[in-house]
Amino acid sequence: MRIRGALAGLAALLAVTAAATPATAEPANVEPAPPGVNDWSCQPSEEHPTPVVLVHGLGGSAPTNWAYMGPKLVSEGYCVYALTYGQPPLVPPITGGFSPMEESAPELAEFVDEVLAATGAEQVDLVGHSEGTVMPQYYLKFLGGADKVQRYVAITPLYDGTTLHSTSELLDRLAEEIPVVGEIPDELCGSCRQFFKDSDFMKKLNADGAAVPGIEYTTIMTKYDQLVTPYTSGHLDGATNIVLQDVCPNDFSEHVAVAFNPNVARLVLNALDPAHAQPVRC
């Protein structure tokens, strides 16, 4: 089944629907979000005491990237929050992640503080996809975020960057998955060059090792990742490293589809609550 086009259309529809829904959240920078996500009255339960913050990838947003995963986590009893970050002028409102990552990280820092204030929790768990596995590392390492995060579940991570050869190639491949990205010129993507292997940003981020001490990392990679090349860039020393096809050999999900994948959702849930992990029913 070819799902990429359907996912892009679904994501765009959900973005429009969410944007038209009046927000009732307390913080000033309330974001449109999937159903159940960004409920600022949510109080963490005894079973799930740590709120979850979802961090989208390049070209994604809170309502599009997390249209499936967000409600799934809510249905499992978590307080779930998602922001849209990195939106320079002229970028379409349903896309984010285009600002330089050191400019986006303070947005995440502010959002996490709002979640902690609303829920009374001491820490959050992060679930990131693509850029959402890289930008938060800057927050953890340089903006004091390490003490505020317990677990970090990284979907299609790229701790060692990607070997794609140019910003244009990165945007072209992303546009195949999210058509609206094709409208964004190279010069508006301040984060794009930062993803490349051996970029100055990656060198700074990994100067003392990619992993941040004290954080419980789980990485989820796919062999069919066409944006993170090689996909093994997502391997992190000291983490629980999972290749989707080692769990479900017949799962051919690529970079975008994994965010809408029930097998990946179960892996995420197991990482967030390892004491009650359940088998993945491929």
UniProtKB/TrEMBL annotation:
Q: Which GO terms describe its biological process?
A: lipid catabolic process
Coiled-coil portions: none
Q: Does the keyword Transmembrane apply?
A: no
Could you identify this protein by its name? Answer: Alpha/beta fold hydrolase
Q: Name one Pfam family in it.
A: Lipase_2
- Does the entry feature the keyword Signal, yes or no? yes
Q: Which SUPFAM superfamilies does this chain map to?
A: alpha/beta-Hydrolases
Mention one GO molecular function: lipase activity
What domain of life does the UniProt record list for this protein's source?
Answer: Bacteria
Q: Where is this region: Disordered?
A: 25-45
Q: Which UniProt keywords apply?
A: Hydrolase, Signal
Could you tell me which species this protein originates from?
Saccharopolyspora hirsuta
Signal peptide residues are 1-25
